[in-house]
Amino acid sequence: MSTCIVTSDESINHLTGDGHPERPERIIAITEKLKKRNDLIWEKPKKFNPSILKKAHDESYIDMVQRSFPREGLKYLDGDTLVSPGSEKATLEAVGCVIHAIEGVENKKFKNAFVPVRPPGHHAERNKAMGFCIYNNCAVGAHYLIEIFKYKKIAIWDPDIHQGNGHQSIFWDNKKVLYLSTHQYPFYPGTGSEDEKGKHNNIFNVPLPAGTSADQYLKAHDRILKRLIEFEPEFLLISMGFDMHKNDGLGQFKLASKDFYEITKRTLAATNSFTKGKVVSILEGGYDLNALAESANEHVNALVEFS
């Protein structure tokens, strides 16, 4: 078995306008880098039952999103989240890629998976789009694991530089899901203090200041690993942002591309005995194209090492 890359041709058809940081070139940069390798499996999503969206999002919100896609031009869902005619298929296939990756891991078609898709998801709340995110891809995946495969202990680790307010709000009172986040704080979206712990002590935030170095980050990451080991997750979902990179314009951390190998390797090593290697990683942020491609490749290096 090996690592699978599950992505959608529709991701590049989700247009966001000139100058928008969350742009189609992000997926192109990652896939062009990864296609130079010969140690990966590549797959496309299959159709899924859209009713699973209702586990993470209100039905009225799903209806609003489906009505919002324009026939031409762009339309704002919030101040920085836009949709275009190509966004409808892109948003659904982003979720479909996550579900296909989960099924592939469960059915032992491959050991683990990386899902580079857009739009990203971790800021999308139950009834609100924000921060470039429309459907919460990772949250839908977690609910799929609970509903279809009957998991009782799922961990979502979110190293994106922006705290995943969508994950936190959707799983606030769900004891089957442990959400862990390292992020710049105070910073967008404003959530993520250490005091935000969830109804079942199932939210674990490690806020860090602007200017955090790789060494400082790894010390903070030790706290994430300790909490993961205490939880003993049966399945690990990674809400994988690469905007902690020192060259990324949307954050102020100082990590290098190779650091994403180290933090991924450490996380997989800490959880492997519990998950038996069941890991699906889903793209969130990362906006400098060179840094994004390099960092994603380093992330995949660690996934392959554990496949």
Description:
The protein is of the alpha/beta class and about 300 residues long. The chain has a single domain (about 5-305), classed as Arginase, Chain A (3-Layer(aba) Sandwich), CATH 3.40.800. Helices cover about 40% and strands about 15% of the residues. It has 9 helices and 10 strands. It has helices spanning about 25-35, 55, 60-70, 85-105, 135-150, 165-170, 215-230, 255-275, 290-305; strands at about 5, 40-45, 75-80, 80-85, 110-115, 155-160, 175-185, 205-210, 235-240, 280-285. Strands 2-1-5-10-9-6-7-8 form an 8-stranded parallel sheet, with helices on both faces. It has a two-stranded antiparallel ribbon with strand order 3-4. Helix 1 packs across helix 9 (about 290-305), helix 4 (about 85-105) packs across helix 5 and helix 8 (about 255-275) packs parallel to helix 9 (about 290-305). The termini are close together.
**Number of distinct helices:** 9
Shape-level CATH architecture: 3-Layer(aba) Sandwich
Shape: globular
**DSSP, total strands:** 10
What is the CATH topology classification name? Arginase, Chain A
Order of helical and strand elements: EHEHHEEHEHEHEEHEHEH
Rg estimate, integer Å: 17 Å
**How would you state the average pLDDT, rounded?**
98
The first-level CATH class is given as Alpha Beta
Q: Helix- and strand-based class? A: alpha/beta
Summed up, the domain count is 1
The amount of beta strand, in percent, is 15-25%
Strand order of the largest sheet: 2-1-5-10-9-6-7-8
Question: Ranges with pLDDT <50 over ≥5 residues?
Answer: none
The CATH H-level homologous superfamily? Histone deacetylase domain
Largest sheet: 8 strands, parallel
Please report the distance between the alpha carbons of the first and last residues.
6 Å
What is the helix fraction of residues, given as a range?
25-40%
